[in-house]
Structure of Serine protease:
Amino acid sequence: MPSEVPREAMDADGRVDVATAQRIVENAVARATSGPDKSASIIEAKVAEATRRGARLNALLAFGVAVTLVALGVAAFVVYRSQRAAAILTTEAGLGARPVAAPVGTLPTKVLSGREIYEQNKGALYVLAYKQNRLISGCCSAFAIDKNQLVTNAHCVTSCGARGGKPVVVQNESAGKVELEVVAQRAHPTYSTSSKRADTPDVALLRVKGTLPGAVTLASDAELRALGPGDDVYVLGFPGRVMDPVSPSATFLSGHLGRLMGFDEQATSADKAAVILHDAVTRGGNSGSPIFNQYGHVVGVHAAHMDDEENISIDGQKTTIVQASPYRIGMRIDLVRGVPTP
């Protein structure tokens, strides 16, 4: 029997009865359970441990997501660089370009002399002029392409009209007898009046009241695609100093095609080379003159000089020196297809 049993509860042999033993056990249990309750602290400890484990797991997940996003960004950049490099190679190799339509028409076989070209086309040449009362002032050259339409430069349409007066065209070598009123003018829709360079389509159409007696022949697509440096070219028009709007007489000028290029003055494919560089000696009134090839067909419209500019300093002030260049700019004749009918 445990020592906690009082001696007075025992008999002579050291035994206790059942009731006494039961009471002793109950007292022992009561003493054992009468201490402070530790269940709350145990629960708090368990909760704290679970929270710490959750925080560690969340941190690991966040780190994994961040690494995944970085990896996706790197992969996207690599794919972009690869696709860009492939696109550049494809463009340079011409693999992704749409096939260019075959040019329409054929190359003529008969080469004409300069005199033949002039004689065949002199009746299609006109001075674009403006009349105020009885006064008439010349502005640009123009040429007939059908019974009531002529081609000239867009800058002639947008700037010459500012002088005032009624626009008319006077036929070459007609002694002023063939004079037709211009009833509508239309510049190429993408021509930029603010540009000081020939980097936009400088072409325009004129519509007259009445019937034009003759017209030039426009070069076919095949002729335009076949143009190249060294080709003979001829310009027929009315240079400013000798322009006479009362009784016009065209001047014949010859030269060579120096280069074909795009509006950015860079080399390009034959179907996009809309700018013609030539060296026929033209002057201001030649704007709007037709440029003929050796077959007597119009390949372009003379538009401007290509002068060289140099910035220098004189007495500490910056000055731009313009030096005359032997090169002239022409617009390829197929640009007029983009001009709406006036």
Observations:
- The longest helix spans residues 39-93.
